[in-house]
Amino acid sequence: MSAATTTVVRRPRRDWVNGLLSLWGILVFAFLFLPIVMIVIYSFNDGRALVVWREFGFHAYTSALSNRTITNSVFTSIRAAGGAAVIATIVGSLAGIALARRPGKWTIAFLAFVFLVLVTPEIVDAISLLIWYVRIGGPFGPGNQIFNYGLLRLFIGHALFASAVVTLIVRARLAGLDESLEEASADLYANATQTFRKITLPLMMPAVLAGALLAFSLSLDNTIISSFVSTANASPWPVYVFSSLRSILRPEIAAMSTLVLLLTLFALAMVAIVLRRGGASGEEAAAMIAGVEASSGSA
Amino acid sequence: MAEAATGARVGAGAKRPRRRLPRFALAIPAWLLFLFFFLIPILYIFRYSFGYKPDIFRTIAIDRFTFDRYTESFSDTFRDVFSGTLRISITGTILCLLIAFPFAYWLAVKVPSRWRGLLLGLTIVPFWTNFLVRTLGWLILLQPNGWLSGVMQDLHLIGAPLDVLDTREAVQLGVVYNYLPLMIFPLFVALDRLDPALREASKDLGANRIRTFRQVTLPLAMPGVIAGLLLVFIPLTGDYITAAVLGGAKGNMVGALVASQFNTAQNWALGSAMAVILILMILASLAVFSLIGFGIRALVRRSRRVEIAMEPA
To answer: What is the pTM of this model?
Structure first.
C-alpha cells in the first residue's frame, strides 16, 4: 500500500526525467543515422558530383555496376574478406578452445597479447605490416608467382584484428558451457576426436559462425591497413573510395556503398539469426555482433 | 552425482597419457600469427625510427643509428599537429562519454525489454557501415550549399552558408560521430548487467535518484566507462581518415603525418619515428588518465568514509 503511494507521488518527476532520456535516445539515433541516410539518398543523385544534388535517378547504380575498376575493387574486397575470415576463424577458434578448456600459466600472457592487438591504433598496424611485408618479401612480395601477393597481404593484415575478436567470442561461448558434457562423452568411450566432433564443435558452432561473419564484415570495412599494404592489382573497395577523395567524388561511390551496406546488413542479420538459434537472447546476440561483450570483459 | 564426478575424473586420468601436447598447443597458430605479423613488425617500427632516408629513390636505411628523426619530429609544425591531435582526441573522448552515457542508460534501463534487442541492433548498423562512407555522409551534410545549411539559414540559426568543412570543428564532429558506437556498447553492457534491485535497495534506504546514481549506478558502471574510454581514445588518437575527409589542411592529425611520410614523402624513418611518438603519446596519456582516476577514487573513498562514520553518531 505504502509502496503504491510512493509510486504515485514520484510519478510526475519520474516522467520528466524519463521523457528527457527518451528524447536524448531519439536524438542520438537521428545523429547516428543522419549521414548514412544522406549516402543512401545521394546514391540516387543523377549529377556528376556526389555532393551536389541535381535530380533523382538510377544512373549512379548502372554506371557503378558497369565500371570495371569499381566492380573489381568490390570483388577484391569480397575475396580479401573471405580469406581473412577463413584464417581468423580457424586461428581464433583454436585459440578460444585452448583458452576455455586448457587454461594455465600461459593464459594471462596470451590474453595480454590479444588485448594489445585489439587496442593498437590501426595506423601502427598498417605501417608495421608494410615494413614487414617489404622486408620479408617471399610470398608477400612481387616474387610470388603462384598467388596474388597483394591479396595474401590483405588476408593476413585483416585476419590479425579479427583473430583476436574471434578468440574472445569463442572463449566466451565455451566458458559459458559446462564441461561435463565433454566429460560424459569421454566416459562413454568416445575418443578425443569423436568428442570434439560430436560434442564440442556443435556447441561452439554459433560462436564460430558469428566470429566468421564478424571477421568478414571487419575486413570489408577496413580502410587503413588496406591502403598501406594493398597493391595495384589487389586494391579493395575502401581504398578506391579513399583515393577518389583526392580527385572527384562521384555518385557511383554512394551507389556502390549502398549495395555494400546491404551486403553487410545481410551478413549481420545472418549472424543474429545464427546466434539466436544458438540460444542467445536478442540482446546478447547484438552485443556479440558488436564484438564488445567479449573485449570489454577482458579489459 | 558424486559418482558421475568421480567417473569424469577417472576418464580424464585414463586419457592423460595420450595428451602429450602442451596446454597452449591449440593456441599455437594464434601465437605465431600475433608474433610474426604483429609483435615483430611493430618492433621494426622502433628499429626504423632510428634509421634515415639515404636518397630520393630508397625509403629507408638502418646501417647508422641516429636520433635525428626524433628531433625532426619535434619541430614546431609537427608539435602543433601533435598537440592538436591530443586536443581533438581528448575532447572527442569526453564528448563521446557525455553523449553515450545517458543514451546507454536509457537503452539498458528505460527501454521496454521487448524493444531493447531491436534498438541495440539499430545502434550497431552505423558501426558496421564503412567508416569512410559514414564520413562521406557528413561531407554531403556539411556542404555550404547543402540542405542542412539551407535549413539552418531559413531558421536564422546562421547568417551565411554553413562554413565548417575543412576546419578542426568538422574533424571534431566527425570523430565524435565515428567513435560514438565504441563508447555506447561497453557502457550498455555494464549498465545492462546492473541488477535493478540494487537501485531499488538504494531508494528503499532513503537515497534520492541523484545519490543513487552517484553511489550505486555510476560506480558499478565504471568498468564499462573505462573500457569505453580506452576503446574510443586509442583508435581516435591514431585516426586520420576522418581528418582527411572533413579537415582539409587544417585538420591534420598525427596519423595523417605518419601516412604521408609513408605514402607521399617515402621517408619511412621519419614516419616510424612519428608512429613511435604517437604510441608513446597514447601510453603517456593513459598513464596520466589512470593517475587522475586513482586520485579521484581515493578522494571519493575518503569523503565517503567520513559520511559513513558520521551517520551512526
So the answer is: 0.84
Task: Please list, in sequence order, all residues whose beta carbon lies within 8 angstroms of the beta carbon of residue B139, skipping any fewer than 6 positions away.
Answer: A51, A249, B165, B245, B246
Contact state of B27 with A38 under an 8 Å Cβ cutoff: no
pLDDT at residue B308 is higher than 60: no
What's the whole-number mean pLDDT along residues A16-26?
A: 91
Mean per-residue pLDDT of chain B: 85
* B-chain residues near A117 (CB < 8 A): 34, 38
Ordered structural domains, chain A, with CATH:
72-298 (1.10.3720.10)
pLDDT cut 90: percent of chain A above it: 43
Joined together, the cell numbers standing for residue B253 give 592529425
User: For the domain that residue B215 is a member of, what is the CATH number?
Assistant: 1.10.3720.10
Q: For residue range B211-267, list pLDDT tens digits in order.
A: 888 888 888 888 889 989 988 999 899 888 999 899 877 668 899 889 989 988 889
Residue A226 and residue A218 in contact, taking contact as beta carbons nearer than 8 Å = no
Which residues of chain A make contact with B188, given a CB cutoff of 8 A? 287
DSSP for chain A? -HHHHHHHHHHHHHHHHHHHHHHHHHHHHHHHHHHHHHHHHHTTB-SSSTTS---B-SHHHHHHHH-HHHHHHHHHHHHHHHHHHHHHHHHHHHHHHHHHHS-STHHHHHHHHHHHHHHS-HHHHHHHHHHHHHHH-GGGSTT--SS-HHHHHHHHHHHHHHHHHHHHHHHHHHHTS-THHHHHHHHTT--HHHHIIIIIHHHHHHHHHHHHHHHHHHHHH--HHHHHH-BTTB--HHHHHHHHTTS---HHHHHHHHHHHHHHHHHHHHHHHHHHHTT--HHHHHHHHHTHHHHHHH-
Distance (Å, rounded) from C-alpha A169 to C-alpha A291? 7
Q: Is B262 inside a domain boundary?
A: no
Nearest CA to A162 among A102, A229, A82?
A82
What's the number of domains chain B is made of? Answer: 1
Put simply, the answer to whether B45 touches A131 (Cβ < 8 Å) is yes
- Residue B4: pLDDT over 60: no
Residue B198 sits in which domain range? 84-252
B238 has a chain A CB within 8 A of its CB: yes
**Does any domain span residue B282?**
no
Q: Is A31 on the interface with B (CB under 8 A)?
A: yes
